[in-house]
């Protein structure tokens, strides 16, 4: 298995494992307890890895979200807690969700170790949310479920950043990319209707996805061939169990 093969084979798991905590009702129940309103916890918590910045910086890092929507939620959440505390609360929600949902028969410790090698060696160039998440405190090694999902979220942020760059390089707008890949998310990402016709841009999106695999493959190249196979197998198995 080549690193690019591994990037392609693990794309769904890398993108999907930590997205499940981001979509979990328990995450937003926790946000409400802390004083956030709905999706404000997502924008405040995820974006807070960037620090105390203007909303346009957060929108730039999110890439695929409607910038005015990001601004509204970012500014609405400013009074709830400091950005540093919001980042910590978001990470804690990730860890709590992992402890509850990662099954004991998954080798979370090994997945955490493999993902950790990649996270540690990866360049942060063009990936500010990945860089910010990597700078947060990790769970301890004996908290394997939380550590595995924490590191997989780092890889999610990295792949998302690389994909955003590939989409823009392919000549697509962020909204077009959302409508091709996950049209049901356009409203959640804040984009107002009417939406443009994207019938003619599927090929450009596929080219961007292939470029993302190539870039992510270079990142995964820090792993040996046998480790690549392990990473794909473990991450795919965990994603399969978690997504039901």
Short description:
With 244 residues, this protein is mainly α. The chain has helices spanning 3-23, 25-34, 40-47, 55-62, 67-76, 83-101, 108-121, 128-134, 144-169, 174-181, 202-220, 225-243.
Index terms:
0% strand; globular
Could you describe the 3D structure shown?
The chain has 244 residues and is mainly α. 69% of the residues lie in helices and 0% in strands. The chain has one domain (3-243). It starts with a helix and ends with a helix.
The best one-word shape is globular
Helix content: 55-70%
Main pleated sheet: none
Tell me the domain tally: 1
Structural class of the secondary structure composition? mainly alpha
Unreliable residue runs: none
In DSSP terms (H or I, runs of 4 or more residues), the helix count works out at 12
Q: What is the element string, with H for helices and E for strands?
A: HHHHHHHHHHHH
| Overall mean pLDDT | 97
Total strand segments: 0
Cα-atom radius of gyration: 17 Å
- β-strand percent reads under 5%
* End-to-end C-alpha gap: 27 Å
């Amino acid at each position: 298995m080549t690193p690019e093969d591994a990037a392609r084979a693990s794309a769904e798991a890398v993108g999907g494992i930590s997205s499940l905590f981001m979509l979990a009702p328990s995450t937003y129940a926790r946000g409400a307890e802390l004083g956030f309103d709905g999706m404000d916890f997502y924008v405040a918590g995820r974006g807070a890895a960037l620090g105390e910045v203007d909303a346009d910086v957060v929108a730039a890092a999110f890439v695929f979200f409607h910038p005015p929507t990001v601004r509204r939620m970012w500014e609405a959440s400013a009074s709830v807690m400091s950005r540093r505390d919001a980042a910590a609360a978001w990470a804690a929600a990730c860890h709590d969700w992992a402890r509850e949902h990662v099954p004991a028969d998954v080798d979370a410790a090994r997945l955490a170790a493999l993902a950790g090698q990649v996270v540690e060696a990866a360049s942060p160039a063009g990936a500010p949310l990945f860089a910010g998440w990597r700078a947060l405190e990790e769970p301890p090694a004996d908290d394997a479920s939380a550590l595995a999902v924490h590191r997989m979220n780092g890889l999610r942020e990295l792949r998302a950043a690389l994909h955003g760059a590939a989409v823009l390089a392919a000549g697509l707008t962020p909204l077009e990319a959302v409508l091709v890949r996950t049209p049901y998310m356009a409203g959640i990402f804040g984009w107002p209707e009417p939406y443009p016709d994207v019938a003619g841009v599927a090929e450009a999106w596929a080219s961007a996805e292939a470029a993302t695999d190539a870039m992510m493959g270079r990142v995964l190249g820090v792993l040996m061939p046998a480790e690549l196979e392990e990473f794909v197998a473990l991450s795919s198995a965990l994603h399969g169990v978690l997504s039901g």
